[in-house]
Design goal:
Largest sheet: 7 strands, mixed
Distance between the termini: 65 Å
Bound molecules: pyridoxal-5'-phosphate
Number of helices: 16
Mean pLDDT: 96
Strand order of the largest sheet: 4-12-11-10-7-5-6
Structural class: alpha/beta
Shape: globular
Strand content: 15-25%
């Protein structure tokens, strides 16, 4: 049997649907973020990254890099096995304490990624609650959707951020156990969940809450605890989930909550028990990033200021910036091929890297460029971005927003 044909056919389908993904070969330069080297087919070229989820540039912060190097030098590289086999190395214990403190919770539990923490966390929590009904936001990330599926319990989807719909479902569910699962900040549109209202409903109808703060930890709240901290509702949410791979510049995911919830997940979650723990150097680096951002507001303030400036300048040029309440700047394209072409032209002709966001990451017809300004994107880089985008928009015959232009 020719097994290769199955894979070639699968790839052909992606090509036919214009969904085949190509990853740029990039090498970041510590100390010069957002500058990087692109290993292009024609050789090395300097480029500026405009779509990194290392939102605050902490992946190159001297304290974070220093902690990683120091720990690796002192204790070596790997964790030596699952925690069951190798015990818990000390930097991991310190990191879990730091995370519990960040979210004002009794305990936290670390996983190898945010994806695994959602997949394993949601499914394990749900499996431990007899007859639970999961109520899940329609735009939840794939890691949450898979966690909900894996739970193999009843589930209902509420319309995105629609608390009236959520309330209808809560009422219809009656007095059975209910678990509300949502994100605090949705990363493709940059909109924010009405967390206070969701907590009100959860308390009123006796539901447990699980909130993904992956795109908010480090960046929102006075100590970087996320949107829930900013909105003063952190103590009202049962389980907070986050990543160490975005604003904290490292790798790993976690959940934080009451001691018995965390201990039960630790004791039952296959995706935690049967996999090697994160290496000590990564844990130390993440702890350094979290500690730094608990007291330093410079990164958060500058991040917001830069994002606001990018939005203002692109809007003034008539570029179709989609409305966003946060640091995410989505630019509407609405066509998968043009989205890919725009991204290619920006990279090849202007030295700007912004990956295209196409289906299935976003709905068909809403393809976009997702721009993520960091504290380190200077004015000159923003001006260059705007000029390059205007040229690309003209070449691809993409529409500009006339109202903004007329107002100039
Ligand atoms: N949750 C959300 C909302 C995400 O966008 C992502 C994407 O990366 C994840 C979880 C997964 O986190 P990680 O990259 O740490 O696996």
């Amino acid at each position: 049997m020719d097994y290769s044909q199955f894979f070639q056919n699968a790839l052909n389908r992606l090509h036919d649907e214009r969904r085949y993904r190509v990853f740029a070969d990039l090498e970041r330069i510590a100390g010069r973020f957002p500058h990087a080297v692109w290993h292009s087919p024609q050789g090395k070229r300097n480029v500026v990254i405009w779509c990194s989820n290392d939102y605050l540039g902490m992946g190159q912060h001297p304290k974070v890099v220093g902690a990683m190097v120091e720990t690796a030098t002192r204790v070596g590289t790997g964790a030596g096995g699952t925690r069951n086999i190798a015990g818990t190395h000390h930097p991991l214990v310190q990191l879990e304490e730091e995370l519990a403190d960040l979210h004002g919770k009794e305990a936290s539990l670390l996983f190898t990624s945010g994806y695994v923490s959602n997949h394993t966390g949601i499914s394990t929590i749900a499996k431990l609650i007899p007859n639970v009904l999961i109520l899940s936001d329609a735009l939840n990330h794939n890691s949450m959707i898979e966690g909900v599926r894996e739970a193999r319990c009843d589930r209902q989807i509420f319309r995105h951020n629609d608390v009236a719909h959520l309330e209808e479902l809560l009422i219809a569910a009656g007095d059975r156990p209910k678990l509300i699962v949502c994100e605090s900040l949705y990363s493709m549109d940059g909109d924010v969940a009405p967390l206070a209202k969701i907590c009100d409903l959860a308390e009123q109808y006796g539901a447990m809450t699980y909130v993904d703060e992956v795109h908010a930890v480090g960046m929102y709240g006075p100590r970087g605890g996320g949107i829930a901290e900013r909105d003063g509702v952190m103590h009202r949410i049962d389980v907070l989930e986050g990543t160490l791979a975005k604003a904290f510049g490292c790798l790993g995911g976690y959940i934080a909550g009451k001691a018995e919830v965390i201990d039960a997940v630790r004791s039952y979650a296959a995706g935690f028990i049967f996999t090697t723990a994160l290496p000590p150097a990564i844990c130390s680096a993440a702890t350094a990033a979290i500690r730094h951002l608990k007291t330093s507001n410079w990164e958060r303030e500058r991040h917001q200021e830069r994002a606001a400036r990018v939005k203002a300048i692109l809007n003034a040029e008539g570029l179709p910036v989609m409305s966003s309440d946060t640091h995410i700047v989505p630019l509407f394209v609405g066509n998968p091929e043009k989205c890919k072409q725009a991204s290619d032209m920006l990279l090849e002709e202007h030295g700007i890297y912004i990956q295209p966001i196409n289906y299935p990451t976003v709905a068909k017809g809403t393809e976009r460029l997702r721009i993520t300004p960091s504290p380190y994107h200077e004015d000159a880089l923003i001006d260059h971005l705007a000029e390059a985008l205007l040229q690309v928009w003209e070449r691809l015959d993409l529409p500009l927003n006339r109202k903004s232009l007329a107002a100039e």
